[in-house]
Design goal:
Blueprint lengths: L7 E8 L2 H11 L3 E7 L7 E6 L8 E6 L12 E9 L4 H9 L7 E5 L2 E7 L5 E6 L22 E8 L3 H9 L3 E6 L2 E5 L8 E6 L13 E8 L2 H13 L8 E2 L3 E7 L5 E9 L24 H7 L10
Parallel strand pairs: 1-4, 5-8, 9-12, 13-16
Antiparallel strand pairs: 1-13, 2-3, 3-4, 5-9, 6-7, 7-8, 10-11, 11-12, 14-15, 15-16
Bound molecules: zinc ion.
Length: 314
């Protein structure tokens, strides 16, 4: 069994409108934009990262805004809902704040004994906020959401699959333990993780595969401390028969990828070197950072890429 995985690292989704994406995740949800860079394979497309002050593993929501893509269609073989952790008693604040933006599908419920508010981001991302009184992670409060309400990182993510058995076995192999189940959802927990320790498996036998598009999760990444731990995980997965990519340098972490039996794309990402590798923590996400191989495109990219922030009126 793998012991090196310590919860989630990041969740990466597709989007269409970069400025809208930036507005919603940083202004509305109050996350800190910790990096603006571009897609390694498609440098005319942003890669935007939002998280806590430093972009700690287990807090980082990232997006690829492809300007012309269609909306995704929800289905199986994907991450269903990405769930953020908020303080106890804060959901009323969030309900009012999100209702004021006329977001669709706002719905309160109780899930595994915790209060939950489900919502759809403007481009369709299925998100939820859960009140978790046991979460002691320090939230980012620099975007106007105070500490008694602010998001502290991921609470959980759900995987939507046609058959949960093989996915559950894989997660157990990755160090997760079976926890409660309710309403057709099997919860697994990584004891001693980084705070983003829960995965829910939603089994939907008759549901078609999802179509990837704006609002869909592209992949979900799990955290390991360093490159040595990542190599150990890679070997364990290969020895078990998974087809795992070589280690890829993503500038702010190293990554390996593999497809789960249920069709979800998993990544294992290192906590090193982190988002302050090329900018001071005080100024994370303020300027466009480019992978070295795309640096020569900087002047073109400055005209192609949509401005993230509306110009301040004079
Ligand atoms: Zn990733």
């Amino acid at each position: 069994m793998i012991t090196e995985i310590k919860g989630l690292h990041h969740v990466t989704s597709m989007a269409r409108d970069a400025a809208e994406n930036n507005r919603f995740f940083s202004k509305t949800l109050g996350l800190r934009r910790v990096k603006q860079t571009v897609n390694f394979d498609e440098p005319s497309v942003y890669h935007l990262y939002y998280g806590d002050e430093t972009g700690s593993a287990g807090t980082v929501m990232t997006h690829f805004p492809f300007p012309h893509i269609a909306r995704g269609k929800q289905g199986t073989g994907e991450v269903g809902t990405t769930v953020f952790s908020v303080p106890e008693g804060s959901l009323k604040y969030w309900e009012d704040r999100l209702a004021a933006e006329r977001l669709g599908d706002l719905e309160r419920s109780e899930s595994f004994g915790q209060q939950r508010l489900s919502l759809r981001a403007p481009e369709g991302d299925a998100l939820a906020l859960v009140e978790d009184k046991a979460d002691s992670r320090v939230p980012w409060t620099g975007n106007g959401v105070g500490a008694s309400e602010a998001i502290r990182g991921f609470h959980s993510a759900s995987l939507r699959v046609r058959d949960g058995g093989a996915t559950e076995e894989l997660l157990k192999f990755m160090g997760y333990e079976k926890a409660e189940s309710a309403n057709g959802v099997q919860r697994l927990v990584r004891p001693g993780g980084n705070g983003a320790d829960l995965i829910d498996i939603e089994v939907l036998p008759g549901v078609d595969r999802a179509d990837l598009g704006a609002g869909s999760v592209h992949h979900i990444a799990f955290a390991v401390e360093n490159r040595a731990a990542q190599l150990a995980v890679r070997k364990a997965l290969l020895d078990t028969g998974y087809q795992v990519t070589p280690v890829i340098d993503r500038d702010y972490f190293w990554a390996i990828y593999f497809r789960t039996p249920g069709g979800v794309l998993f990544e294992i990402a290192t906590n090193e070197p982190g988002f302050n590798r090329d900018e001071d923590t005080a100024h994370l996400g303020e300027s466009l950072k480019l992978p070295q191989q795309h640096e020569h495109l900087r002047s073109q990219l400055a005209t192609w890429l949509q401005p993230l922030e509306e110009k301040e009126s004079a």
